[in-house]
Amino acid sequence: MLQLDVSGRPQAWITTREAAVIYACDGVAWTLGDPCQVLRGGWQRLSGRQSRIEVHSIIAVRGAVPSRAWRQAPALSNAKLFARDRFVCAYCGHRHDVEDLTREHIQPTSRGGRDTWMNCITACRSCNGRKGSRMPEEAHMSLLYLPYVPSLHEDMILRGRRILADQMEFLLASVPRNSRLHG
C-alpha cells in the first residue's frame, strides 16, 4: 500500500497489515481508487456480522509529517541509480543487465568527488574500467545523459516495488514530464 500524508505527499510503502492497523485506529483521512483487499475479522456476537476492512492501495494518513523529511534528497543506492538511468551506460549508451553495471563517479572519489546523485551515473563495467580515476574529458569520454536528483515521487517508484496501476498513475502525475521514468 502507498501511504501518503494528508496533503498527498508519499510517505512510505506499507504492508496490508500496517494499513489495517491505520484503518482500525481511524487514522485514514482519505483514500484513492477501489479497495484492493478485503480483510475479514471475527464475528460480532450481538449482530452476527463479521467485521471487515476494505483496504485501498493508496491511503492518506491523518497527522503531521516533519517538513524536514521533504527537504532531503532520497537515499542513493545502486538499485535506484540503475533504475533512474534505465539500466543504460552513460558512456556507451547500451542497455545492460544489472550484473554488468557499476556506480560511476563523474568526478572520481579519489579526486574529491562525492557519492551523490549529481556526481553518480550508471556505467557498464567496461566503460567504468576504461575511464578509471580520470575525469570524463581526460578519458575522452562524454556523458550521453546528465545526472539528476530524483523527486520524492520518483524515489517511491525507484524503490523497486511491485507498483499497482493506480499507485503508478498517482506517482507519475507528480513526476516531471522530462523524467526518464516517463520514457
From TrEMBL:
Stretches assigned to coiled coil: none
Boundaries of every HNH nuclease domain copy: 76-129
The keyword Hydrolase is annotated on this UniProt entry: yes
UniProt keyword annotations, A-Z: Endonuclease, Hydrolase, Nuclease
Name of protein: 5-methylcytosine-specific restriction endonuclease McrA
GO terms assigned for molecular function: endonuclease activity
Superkingdom of source: Bacteria
UniProt xrefs under SMART domains: HNHc
